[in-house]
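can u pls check wat happens w/ fe (ii) ion
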Amino acid sequence: MYRSDVTGEYLDRTAFRKAEKKYKIYYDHSRKKKLPKPVDLSEVIDFKSILESFSCNVELPEGVSVTKSDLDRHVFCLKSRPGFYFIPNALSTEEQCQWIKESLITFPLPPNRTNHNAIYGPIHDLFASAKEGKFLQFDEKAQEDDGVCLGSNVESVATVWKAADELGALKGDHSRKYISASVLLRKLRWSTLGLQFDWSKRNYDTSLPHRTIPDSLSLLAKRMAAPAMPHGAEFKPEAAIVNYFGLGDMLGGHLDDMEQDWSKPIVSISLGCKAIFLLGGKSREDPPIAMFLRSGDVVLMAGEARECYHGVPRIFLDQEHAEISHLESLFETEDGFPFLNYIRTSRININIRQVF
Ligand SMILES: O=C(O)CCC(=O)C(=O)O
Ligand SMILES: [Fe+2]
């Protein structure tokens, strides 16, 4: 797990942690093949089937309501969590594929920062280099110094990619180390767009070089945010965090409390393999509501819901539960195999925020 804020005995006993443990992946080691232990999903809210039955017979389960919006999509709310909105299947398959590509190619590009910055400095062309089987050459000295002086001396290191057949000739040079681009891609955990977030200080560092959020993402976020915005007001996307989840990854219960104005929503887009999202209350002691997040779903958290603990305890990577066959079909028809390969075992979440 990464990005956990608090740990300890207290947390282990909270209702939120109990739910995390319930849904987290555990393996059955008693069999030859390592298989995930079955988990009871009967209490997980499924907005896909809620949408289906609502579209057929205008029926909604207890506690769920539908809100009016200009979007050509149904927007659902939870009566017990004001300020929370769920838009099932908000993005078309084409849009999902487009944002998966951007998340892998352009979003991790400098000046945007990723979890790799602190160790390797800014990295260019990660996805293309992984596709080409390349290796990143890095200076061991820079990596060691980095432990003492986080990031400062690695900002200027240029990315040097080497083809596999170039490595042999460089074996004698012990000051240089290599790591494969595919390992780095697998270990990509987050990238930040727009105003850059400083995880160590848990705030936005406006002094860091940054680009504005790409126009097309900004437009999408504004359109999606509309149901959670006061009449006539427009959402201003200023920052986004892109989370990349692989096998066994989870996002521990947390609050996103670093933005100034909590009345503005966080617009959160799910891509790739299905996940379970836990939406708690204002205390970790409040039992969270579990729901499925599928590729193309959009969640908004605004107002009171901004004060609710939330997290992602489980990603489903197996064919039956991942529910990505629509992405597979589209990626298979183009030169999409490298993306397909990645997304078959991954989930990506893009969450867009107005900071000020
Ligand atoms: O992955 C998700 O759906 C939620 C991400 C999230 O809560 C965050 O990045 O703050
Ligand atoms: Fe969050």
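The chain has two domains: 9-102+189-353, 116-186.
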